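Why does residue order matter? Because the sequence determines the fold. Keep that principle in mind as you read this record.
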Amino acid sequence: MGKPLIPAQRREKIQEFLAVHQIARTTDLMDLLESSEATVRRDLEWLEQKGILERTHGGAILSQRVLFEQEYQQRAQKNPEEKKRIGELAAGLIENGDIVFVNSGTTATEVLKHIRRDARITVFTNNVNAAMELGDPGFHYHLTGGEFQSRSNSLAGRFALDNLNLVFANKLILGVDGISLKHGCTVPTNDEAEIVRKMIERTKGQVIVAADHSKWGAVSNFHVANIDEVDKFVTDMKFDKSARKELAAHSVQVII
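Structure:
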């Protein structure tokens, strides 16, 4: 064992490790730093207070801030195969007779594209891009109306909120820009946050989050739901195994 590291050196090494791996287990950090579990935990607590990471059961994840809303086409190019598979899985959770809310976003679009054309369901969404891609979907499909948001190809505003107030759904398929145990589900704009919160309020059934592994640990600008409000999380094979256990402890079913 070499000379013990001072706190600043240990914390720098932890940040370097997280920058590469995004997720760190306490045991890995103990080996890396040649330090005790108590020392590592103190360092993680300090870094969490600085907003650098979020502690989890048995380790930590890197806090990733999503500070602005990317153009729709930029987001569509990220993890396209994972999003397609997530879309298939989430669409498979929709059953005949369902009334479903679906919000905007590239993963939500994939969900809508994979719903069976003969499904006897009704969908309400603010997702303009999906409407353009679907054409005649075969099932009942309603846009919320409202003010067009060009960056996200979505609808928002008072008109959309008033229309959502006329509907109760029994399922919500929710795309998010960030999801974590501490900060819950987050999206980049207040306009989208208002729509999502209203959809959650008007859903008398399952809230299903559909997001790829890169959204785990990310935190965007506006909070829309706590983890305990989520019933199911549909994601991809790259999602961390330890995080699956943590979500299960919050009664969130992870579907991969």
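Residues 7-62 form a domain with the Arc Repressor Mutant, subunit A fold (CATH 1.10.10.10).
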